[in-house]
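We modelled the chain as a single entity of 263 amino acids. Its sequence is:
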Amino acid sequence: MQFVHINGVLIHYRLQRADEQRPVLVFVNSLGTDSRIWHHELPKLTDHYTVLTYDKRGHGLSDLANPPYSIADHVADLAGLLDHLGLSQVIVCGLSVGGLIGQGLYAKRPDLVKALILSNTAHKIGNAETWNNRIAAVDQNGIGSILDAIMERWFTEPFRKPENPAYRAYCNMLVRQPATGYSGTCEAIRDADFTEDAKKIAVPVLCIAGQQDGSTPPELVKSLADLIPGAQYEILEDAAHIPCVEAPAAHAALIRGFIDQLD
């Protein structure tokens, strides 16, 4: 495990270096998860790329800092981490809010970004009423009160079996997430809108949707792809909102196929 202070916030990260000539792939996790969600597919990628994973503020082993947050806070943390590690021209793979952070990083620091993989995300996710209701539920009754509803969006029905140990583990990940870090990032998502910024993205982009995603359904991901000039769009049929857990081989294959096309 590796740690560094960025913008006064302790950030937990892991950098797995490959040959210097290999592309650098940076993973940004979703709301209520940490960098462990990528571990299912990392063995399929680390032989080919230098890979950076990290826990955004308020998640995993990183500091809680001072919630609520903005997407700009998360973007500044990622930019600071990349600068600290001397990395640029990276390929950012962001899942859900991680995709918003990826779009924000390109808007703020295009020098850092070679390409974007925007998985199960959009230019704008949800509306203020939906996010305010979720924040209120978490603040009043804890994350456990929304567990079942969130899991129905995250995973397909076959995965959500009580006897599936992986499903139980990801339930644990969510409910053990600091509530203020969760609701603080909900506020960041609520206030983020990259509709106009998406139209200005001038690097290669792959947008990935899960056919059964209840959080960012395929039509929403497609609307993002339609905004970005030249963006590719792919659907994973047997996946919901977190395909790197539920369909890691298929998700990794899309990533590798996209990167192989880059110069």
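As a brief sanity check on the tokenised model: The domain at 2-261 is CATH 3.40.50.1820 (Rossmann fold). Residues 49 and 259 are 10 Å apart (CA to CA).
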